[in-house]
Design brief:
It is built from eight helices and ten strands. Helix 1 packs parallel to helix 7 and helix 6 crosses helix 7. The strands form three sheets. A six-stranded antiparallel beta sheet has the order 1-7-8-6-3-2, with helices on one face. The chain has a two-stranded antiparallel ribbon with strand order 4-5. About 19% of the residues have low confidence. The longest helix is centred in the C-terminal third of the chain and has 24 residues. By secondary structure, it is α+β, with helices and mostly antiparallel strands. Helix content is 22%, strand content 22%. It is globular, with a radius of gyration of 23 Å.
Length: 329
């Protein structure tokens, strides 16, 4: 399923539609009634871990700010969020680049003055929040539909079925594929555990890694590493030269710190690759040989009562630390 960097890119595809009203809906979802989004305005986009949150609502009255009140522009303009990761600390953004890999930058000068203004009496109705959690090959397309790139098991060249389609008054549209859609009262935000958040708590993450649990299990625990998925897990374990089944309690503080450094750095670099339109070149994930040329092992690991995920590792580059080795030292 898409990991934090991918969901962040999905958010950037949605951001240009903030402030636009939904004119037509479609899709095969049965988890919510798309018709209830008609005539609503997309007001906010947020990402928390692997979840995308979209807020829809209405405004009863929209007009230029009155001269008598003379409020500051920042006080009378609606929030126009772009890449906020939590709360309402959103900044006006302009999207650049193509629909696949949009770039973003802060609005400046006269561009900010072009934003719509609200009177002090303008009343914004309660927002309707939707949470999107993407499955395997889940995605969002802007102003285009996904097309089949190969035949399915039955030999049919059938295009993927959209779960939700939102058409906006600008003429553009968003298409959501292979995702679960939930209605919620507000986004569930825990920036301290979000691997891509500036507020990510490294000390808290280190404490989680120190437990007597295989590090490959801990890295995928969204309570501690929200947004970190299977690709990031495999790559950072290889970069830190740590065996996936090594218990965190047996690893040295320096080894755990190195693993955490790689987890944060790799996630940010992967996000940058997506924003720049460059593909990821994994060193171990899905490979038969490691970069050094050693044979790569493949197994399925996970908690006893949890999801098991495919894991790739090099037996020569990533030696497992065993309890007897600690005692011997």
């Amino acid at each position: 399923m898409p990991e934090g960097p991918s969901v962040k890119r999905f958010q950037l595809r949605c951001s240009p539609f903030v402030g636009q009203s939904v004119t037509k809906v479609g899709g095969c979802t049965r988890q919510m009634n798309p018709d209830k989004l008609k005539s609503l305005t997309l007001w906010d986009t947020q990402v928390h871990g692997k979840n995308l949150f979209l807020a829809f609502g209405t405004i009863q009255e929209v007009a230029p700010c009155s001269d008598s009140a003379s409020p500051r522009p920042s006080e009378c303009r609606p929030s126009v969020p772009g890449t906020a990761t939590s709360g309402d600390n959103s900044l006006p953004l302009r999207m650049e680049g193509n629909a696949h890999f949009p770039q973003c930058r802060l609005l400046e000068g006269s561009e900010v003055d072009d934003l719509p203004l609200l009177t002090e009496n303008a009343v914004r109705q309660p927002r309707k929040w939707l949470r999107f959690h993407f499955g395997l090959y889940g995605s969002i397309r802007a102003n285009e539909f996904a097309r089949a790139n190969k035949a399915n098991k039955r030999g049919d060249w059938r295009d993927p079925s959209p779960r939700l389609i939102l058409h906006f008054d600008s003429g553009g549209f968003l298409v959501f594929y292979n995702c679960r859609i939930y209605q919620c009262s507000s986004p569930t935000a825990q920036p301290a555990t979000d691997i891509l958040s500036p507020e990510f708590d490294r000390q808290q993450a280190l404490e989680a890694l120190c437990k007597a649990t295989p590090v490959c299990h801990t890295l995928l625990d969204q309570r501690h590493f929200s947004g970190l998925g299977n690709i990031i897990k495999n790559e950072v374990l290889y970069l830190a030269k740590i065996h996936p089944l090594s218990l965190g309690s047996l690893l040295s503080p320096s080894a755990l710190k190195l693993l955490l450094d790689h987890a944060v750095q790799f996630s940010l670099e992967w996000l940058d690759c997506k924003l720049q339109g460059r593909g990821l070149r994994p060193q171990i994930y899905g490979k038969d040989k490691c970069p050094v040329g050693h044979e790569v092992m493949k197994g399925t690991f996970g908690p006893v009562d949890g999801l098991k995920r495919l894991t790739w590792w090099c037996c020569q580059c990533q030696l497992e630390v065993l309890p007897e080795e600690i005692q011997g030292n």
